[in-house]
Write a structure and sequence with these properties.
With 324 residues, this protein is mainly beta. It is built from no helices and 27 strands.
Length: 324
């Protein structure tokens, strides 16, 4: 049996929802923020599971009581879409936020004040597409907490080796710049998902190699990814036939993308699998959602999956935390 826990789902236009019974039922958890908030990011404090921050289209909100109430963190982010959030793993007073238009902000005092970082991310797409670049993912290297990765849709991958002061673009071999997520394996090995391919780098992004997923998976469109926390970690990647698509799947690899298997999710998948949630409190407990609102749960490290009844609208963010 999994530990007692809470599940949080961020819904576009419907704010945050919380479950206290392993995702079987949900109640809206948005006291203090407007009920129609567009939630695109959720981040959990690494030491205080009742402390979360959520990113909306109108700035950042914080809860310190597990979602019973939320408070706006007034800042220059108030008028921006927040697409990605990250707590520093060893100094949680340091936080990073990625926005649309594509910028990265840093706070060093728990979110009271924010600084716009000089990343050099372009204001226009690097390809001819009518999309405003946005920072879709922020990750911190587990072996080097000064190294930060920012994945940008559609402008490639940017890296800082000094905690965010200086940034460099790293796209050599990255033939697709539409970055959706980044996974840090440790030891300078990182993985990136895009809208048509997956890539791996063994030197922190200095050079990338395509994994040729079109030959290995039923769909090429990849979205959210997660590295589980079991003894032999597996990488999970949400895939589908487009954004949002009308069909999707969850892929798993044990060898960093050289070979893949498809997880047996129950029922008909209604869209691309978009979000994944893991937590070190229980390495075997994994949640996944499709962007069109289906929720899936595994209690055995991804070997088997169940589908709770509750479904949502457009789901953009997902997290779970221990409740005791």
């Amino acid at each position: 049996m999994p530990i007692k826990h809470l599940v949080y789902v961020g819904v576009t236009g419907q704010s945050v929802w919380r479950s206290e019974d392993s995702g079987e039922t949900f109640k809206r958890s948005s006291n203090g923020m407007f009920m129609e908030a567009e939630i695109r990011a959720l981040a959990v404090h690494p030491n205080c599971p009742k402390t979360l921050i959520s990113g909306t289209e109108c700035g950042l909100y914080k809860t310190v009581d597990g979602g019973n109430s939320w408070e706006l963190l007034p800042s220059q982010l108030n008028e921006l879409q927040i697409w990605s959030l990250r707590f520093h793993p060893t100094n949680p007073d340091i936080m990073f936020a990625g926005t649309c238009p594509a910028d990265v902000y840093r706070s060093e005092d728990g979110g009271k004040n924010w600084e716009l970082l000089d990343t050099g991310i372009p204001r226009k797409c690097t390809i001819d597409a009518p999309i405003v670049p946005r920072v879709t993912t922020l990750k911190i290297d587990p072996d080097n907490n000064k190294r930060i990765y920012a994945g940008v849709e559609i402008a490639g991958m940017y890296r800082s080796d000094d905690g965010g002061k200086r940034w460099v673009c790293r796209i050599e071999g990255l033939t697709n710049h539409d970055i959706h997520d980044i996974i840090c394996f440790g030891g300078d090995t990182i993985y990136a998902s895009t809208n048509a391919e997956a890539f791996i780098s063994h030197n922190g992004g200095d050079e990338w190699k395509a994994l040729n997923i079109r030959e290995k998976l039923p769909f090429r469109y990849m979205r959210g990814c997660a590295l589980d926390l079991t003894e032999n970690p597996a990488l999970y990647a949400g895939i589908g036939n487009g954004p949002p698509g009308d069909n999707g799947a969850l892929a798993r690899t044990l060898d960093k993308g050289e070979s893949w298997e498809i997880c047996e999710l129950p029922g008909n998948i209604n869209s691309t699998i978009w979000n994944l949630a893991v937590n070190p409190a229980d390495p075997n407990l994994i949640y996944a959602t499709s962007i069109s609102g289906q929720l899936f749960r595994s209690e055995d490290g991804g070997n088997t999956w169940t589908k709770p009844r509750h479904e949502f609208g457009e789901v953009r963010a997902l997290a779970w935390v221990p409740s005791d």
